[in-house]
Amino acid sequence: MTDAPDAKHDSTAAAEQAPREQPSPVAGAPLPLPPASDAVRAEWGRRIEAEYRSAAITQHLTLWLIQMGASPDLIDDGLRIVKDELAHARLSHRVHARAGGGALPALRRETLGLKGGDEPLEMAVARAGVEVFCLGETVAVPLFKVLREGCTVPVARRALDRILRDEVRHRDFGWTLLRYLLELPCAPAVRQLVERELRAMFARLRRSYMPPGGAKRATISDDDRAWGLMPVARYGDILERAIERDYVPRFGEHGIDAAAAWRAG
Fold first, then answer.
1. 202: how many CB neighbours lie within 10 A of its CB?
2. What is the mean pLDDT of the chain?
3. Which has the closest alpha carbon to 226: 162, 143, 155, 139?
4. For residue 243, with 0-12 CB atoms within 10 Å meaning exposed, 13-18 middle and 19 or more buried, which class applies?
């Protein structure tokens, strides 16, 4: 608090000492963006790469569905997801550019697809469908919901709005695909594969969402949060909740014990 002007000063002096009133913001003018950190640019850069990779993997998986003569509805859903992922990559690139991001490294081509091996095509489809969609896309729904809640930068919020909306459909595709495979003559082999591999799939998911020391990284700046980031520790929390809320009941509908696989993994 400052003292009031001395009464002996004339009105001109008083006016010079009084704080100047700030101009009112123009109606509809965009608010200034919070500064974007290196972490913001790095994270949105990773998201661009992840969306391209998801598009390529889904395209490959959809080719396998065509080759095995799968349901036309599943094939149509797969092709739509490819378009979604490419749209997500474009939106993420806009955020990256708005945050001041520069050129990105070339994508590693060996990661842009699936490896079938010598197993029957239906088994390869089951393996990829469960890990990429039943696991990955299922936990992505609550993950992007939390990212979206703290995001206030318009370009980032628009990207997360679209991604969250699409992730729900991508999650449902995975569980529909698993149900379809478990209705085929190869269902016993599919079930054995899932029960055998789910432990390792969970272990890979845990390493991704719960990196060493991640639980201690529980805070980020308000600016980073506004750009659509969240603390590393929250990723682990979201995954833990997804086990009981999503994986256990959804796999349980097919007689698969996801809780035991999680504990073992």
1. 21
2. 89
3. 155
4. middle
